[in-house]
Amino acid sequence: MLFGLGNLFYVSILLVNAVAILSEDRFLARIGWGSTPTEPAFGGSRDEAASVKGKLVNLISSVRTLMRIPLIVINTLIIVYALVLG
52-62: string of b/e by CB count within 10 Å (b at 16+)? Predict the structure, then answer.
């Protein structure tokens, strides 16, 4: 089995880490994904929460808020595991 559960766990932790370290000021605001409300253009809607972009922005901010402490613990355990069992 080339791609086992351990590797799948590592990949999922790396992806969650990547989402957690995205800076809202440096990266997300530049591409228009900041959480600050913007004024819609002519004919645009104010309902950003129903769009896919709005849902992704909410998901990113939720991951950054809720997974901060668990990610520190999980990353520490993975580092200790890699150092001990290498």
Answer: eeeeebeebbe
